[in-house]
Amino acid sequence: MALATVLQFSFAPVAGPPTRRRQQIRSSADRQALFSRIAPVYDNLNDVLSLGQHRIWKRMAVNWSGAKEGNNVLDLCCGSGDLAFLLSQKVGLNGQVTGLDFSREQLIVASKRQQLRAKACYCNLKWVEGDAVDLPYPDCYFDAITIGYGLRNVVDKYKAMKEVYRVLKPGSKASILDFNKTTDEFRTSIQGWMIDNIVVPVAAGYGLTQEYRYLKSSIQEFLTGEELEHLALESGFSSAKHYEISGGLMGNLVATR
Questions:
Q1: How far apart are alpha carbons 110 and 126 in whole angstroms?
Q2: Considering only CA atoms, which of 119, 76, 122 is closest in space to residue 96?
Q3: Between these two residues, 35 and 195, which has the higher pLDDT value?
Q4: Which residue ranges run through the membrane (predicted)?
Q5: Residues 71, 94: Cα–Cα separation, whole Å
Q6: For 166, which of 3, 49, 69, 209 is 20 to 30 Å away at the CA?
C-alpha cells in the first residue's frame, strides 16, 4: 500500500506542544501532550502491563458495539488504532472505519501500523485528528462507535457523550471500554497497588514515570459503572448497561441510542 494512501489524515489547526510540567494533569492540552509523549511505546507497554489481556478486552468491546459488514463506524479516541483495526475486520471492504484522536503522534503510529498490515480490509481505514467534544460529522452518521480507554481522559465527559449520541444513528450502539472504578475498597486497593508497584516501575524503564502516575488519579476521578450508565441516559441514550470484566478491574459501557 502506498504511503500516500495510508496517510489519510485530516488535521485541524493545533497549537505547539505544551512544555512538560510536573504539576497535575488537568487540562485537555495537558492530556494531549501526555499521550503524544507516550505514543512511541504505548503499544509495547500495553502488552507488557496487561500480559496481552488488553487484546481480549478490546475484542469484547468491538463485539458489544454491534458493528457488522458494510457499516460506517467510528473509533473515538483511537490512539494507535487497536480497536479501529478490529472494527475494520468487522465491517469489511464495503464498510468504512474512522479513527479519531486528539494526538497527532498517536495517529502517526496508527498509520504506520496500517502500512505493515496486509489484509485488504485495512484499506477501509482513515485517521482524523479531532476533538471528542466537537466531532466534525453530521447527525446520525455512524452505525457504531467504540471508545477504548479514552472517555476517562476527556475533561468534559458529558459533552463528549452528547456528541457520541448526536452522530450515532437511531438504534445504534456505543461501546466504551476503560478501567473500572469500583466502590469496593478491597478491589480499589488492589488496583492502586498494581499501579504503584507494577505499572509505574515498568513505565519508569521507558522514562515515563510521571506519565503513568497520572493513571491512578485518572481512575480515582473517573465515574463508576452506575455513574456511567446515568451519564449515558442523561446524554439521551435510550438504554445503558455497564459490564465489569477481568474480575472488575476493567469495565465496558454499552449505550444504545
A1: 10
A2: 122
A3: 195
A4: none
A5: 8
A6: 69
